[in-house]
Design a protein that fits this description.
By secondary structure, the chain is of the alpha/beta class. It has a single domain, classed as Glutaredoxin. Helix content is 28%, strand content 21%. The chain has a 7-stranded mixed beta sheet with strand order 2-1-5-4-3-6-7. The longest helix has 12 residues. The two termini are 23 Å apart.
């Protein structure tokens, strides 16, 4: 997935077991999707805390955290950290794969093929990707300054 491409529509479930579809959310305005590898890990916790604690600076975008964790794990993760970001479960990895943000075979020394790569996508109200960053190293964070700049230019 690259800037200028049409984002694939999807339906994922949030921690309240409610379906969330990208096309419905885009009716409300831009969307920031933050894919992350695993709940309760250091870098993922840091990333979501940073964004959650500064959520106003990403307005008017709606921000969603997306991982391949179960929605039950994500609910506990969000509760334990008091996140203000809605979490979406991509448990089978299909949405991560559609965005080009899924490890195909390895996650560090572990052999997994269903883990999301740390990635960030800003999608405008027309469903066009305005920012795409897919990180190969799960220890790195997205460029949040660049993300906020793209969102502010969309207003």
């Amino acid at each position: 997935m690259k800037k200028g491409q049409k984002a694939p529509d999807f339906k994922l479930f949030n921690t309240k077991k409610r379906p969330v579809t990208l096309s419905n959310e885009l009716l409300k305005g831009p969307v920031l999707l933050l894919f992350y590898p695993a709940a309760f890990t250091g870098v993922c916790t840091n990333e979501l805390n940073m964004v959650s604690n500064d959520l106003d600076s990403y307005a008017p975008a709606q921000v969603f955290g997306v991982s391949t964790d179960t929605l039950f794990t994500q609910a506990e993760f969000a509760k334990a950290n008091a996140f203000n970001i809605e979490q979406l479960s991509d448990h089978d990895g299909a949405v991560s794969a559609a965005f080009g943000a899924k490890y195909e075979s390895n996650f560090g020394p572990m052999k997994y093929d269903r883990i999301a790569k740390r990635s960030a996508f800003v999608i405008d109200g027309n469903g066009i990707v305005q920012y795409a960053e897919i990180l190969e190293n799960p220890g790195n964070l997205p460029d949040f300054d660049a993300i906020r700049n793209v969102i502010s230019e969309m207003e």
